[in-house]
Automatic annotation (TrEMBL):
Keywords: Hydrolase, Protease, Serine protease. PROSITE patterns: PDZ. This is PDZ domain-containing protein. Pfam families: PDZ_2, Peptidase_S41. It comes from Chitinophaga tropicalis. Belongs to the peptidase S41A family. Residues 94-164 form the PDZ domain.
Amino acid sequence: MIMSNRKLNVFLPILFAIVLALGMYLGHKMPGANTGAQTLLFSRGARAPLQEVMDLLKFKYVDTLQVADLQQEAIEGLLSHLDPHSVYIPPSHLQEVNEDLEGRFQGIGVEFNIIADTVNVISVVAGGPSETAGVQSGDKIIKVNDTLVAGNGISAEKIRKLLRGPKNSKVQVTMLRKQKMLPIQIIRGDIPLYSIDASYMATPQIGYIKISKFAGTTYQEFMDAIRKLEKAGMTKLVVDLRQNPGGYLDAATRIADELLDDNKLILYTKGQSYPRTDYKCEKPGLFEKGELAILTDEGSASASEILAGAVQDWDRGTIIGRRTFGKGLVQEQFDLSNGGALRLTIARYYIPSGRSIQKSYANGREAYDEDILNRFNHGEFVSKDSIHPLDTVPYKTAGGRIVYGGGGITPDIFIPFDTSRFSNILTGMYSRNTFSNFAYQYYNSHREDFSRYKDPTQFTNQFQVSNELYNSYKSFAAKDSIRGIENIKPRDEAEIKSRIKALLARQIWSYAGFYQSLNKDDEMMRKAIEVLNNNTPLK
């Protein structure tokens, strides 16, 4: 052992000399070695062509390039050949995306809109930093620290960047309230982003829960809502998943576990690199026996379809509405070294009957994105007979009913889309935000008129849009360049009054008030109440 070490010590200097000489010779022979150009030494065999091209562009191209932009375009180009739900999230957007699914962000806790280049506080988060500092609904934000934000083409994105910041940091906001300037210092904090917009008793026995997305806090919000409704006497439940784009798989399976009994299969996933994984009920649920209805539409996707599909396949409840989006893929998010992330599809999911509800993306992303519009143009939104199952193999529910995959969840009871709601005059009012702007201004100038209503239920049952209020809205709309005010049809008038009432409720009780008021005249909600009251059996 000692002898071997002595021989190595003798030959080491000679070995180093040979390596040095060889390196100098190779360096002299490298392209660009005698031109004064920067030489890039790398092993061509160890790098993929894409990386080689990026390196050559970076070091050899005639003009200066924005390499980060090129890399993003290259990544998006690669992903464009995969499924439509594998996406790259650049560093500038990652925080916002994560906050939305985590269910919280750090800021001052106000909801605002911009009317005529003025930032108006619509509502203040109860118990949040702004309420603590004395901010009120109706205040107008004039300055944030030293930045003037009124009358200079301010955007919602810029306002959010100015108002949000690390927890416990301070921001100085100048408010205009009743023609007086008020400097208010606000200490930022954690602000919840609720995923359950409303929960209330629709009838003495029927509860209602509106889930807008499946985020990190959704399950706990759902449990709180269920307990509150059961204390109020709920024995039957409506879960509203309309326009819910999905979110976390875990949130959907945990809620399904509260609605299904025993150890029933909720779904299973599998992919090329991921073996089959079963998701089953694991514990007794809070609402396993009461009658159940799920509301869906073409905007219900992903995790929404998991919940609706499990309920349908086990004949646990009635699906009411229109065919869902058709997303049966599972994504996993991978953080990247540049601060962005790759959200990559790693598996397909299959609901209990064994069906995949993923619609085809074989014709490319553009055709995939136009699917909903094509459904509308083909009449599917107004006629159940226009729905054509895309899967040629029928599946059966636990009770033996025939269902199909390959394109979303088809409801048990079809409710057509009311196309009359979008006449030219109503479309103009929606697109110009006329309803919201009017409700904000009217409420803040008539606050005392609304003080008599103690909760959304009383408001929904008692408040009526008077002729005086309706005429005020028409005058406001005319000034907002809405054409055809003098020729409003009775059906449009009913929609206008319903929307004004709901938005006034939102001013007072946020989305809880909005949905309770709007659902009073909602056809899907009416059908759900009818089905649950009549104990209508599934067929």
